[in-house]
Amino acid sequence: MEYTPYTFPLMVAAAIALSLAYFVLKHRPVPGRVTFVLLMIGVAVWSGGYALEISATSFEAKVFWAKLALEAARDLETVGRAGDLEEAAAAFERLEHELERLAAALTALRAEVSG
Questions:
Q1: pLDDT digit string, tens, across residues 36-78
Q2: What predicted TM-score, i.e. pTM, was given to this entire model?
Q3: pLDDT of residue 5
Q4: Spatial contact of 84 and 46, defined as CB atoms under 8 Å apart
Q5: Mean per-residue pLDDT over the chain, rounded
Q6: Alpha-carbon distance 47 to 9, whole Å?
Q7: Whole-angstrom Cα distance, residue 10 to residue 29?
Q8: What is the pLDDT of residue 13?
Q9: CA 22, 26, 29, 32: dihedral to nearest 10 degrees?
């Protein structure tokens, strides 16, 4: 992975979106809360996936990160259109798994850039 000037702002955007999703989910019982949380999760996945895509040095890695962002966005769109909150929980679990993989990749990138 290679650091680009766009990586840091995209990762900050992903962190802010996840923070907003968590805050609204836990502290704001208002209409539209689930839709907003799904949107913020989608923004976080897209931003993080794109940051990793542009930081990747091989074509295969770029394609992998692009597909990850596309699949997550497609899952969230399907759940949002259906309005099925049970599916939203499953999509969120899949997303959490992908975010754990994203965190590991970012740790490796940080070690590579600083070392």
A1: 888 888 888 888 888 888 887 777 777 777 777 777 777 777 7
A2: 0.59
A3: 87
A4: no
A5: 78
A6: 9
A7: 29
A8: 92
A9: 20
Domain boundaries of the chain, sorted by first residue: 7-114
**Cβ atoms 34, 88 nearer than 8 A:** yes
Give the residue among 94, 4, 104 at the shortest CA–CA distance from 56: 4
**What is the 3-state composition of the chain as percent helix, strand, coil, each rounded to the nearest 5?**
85, 0, 15
Residue with the bigger pLDDT between 101 and 6: it is 6
d(CA 70, CA 47): 11
Say which residues have a Cβ less than 8 Å from residue 102's Cβ, sequence separation at least 6: 48, 49, 52
Give yes or no for a contact between 4 and 54, defined as CB atoms under 8 angstroms apart.
yes
Euclidean distance between CA atoms 62 and 43, whole angstroms:
18
Q: How many angstroms separate the Cα of 8 from the Cα of each of 28, 103, 113?
A: 29, 14, 12
**In the 8-state DSSP scheme, what is residue 83?**
T
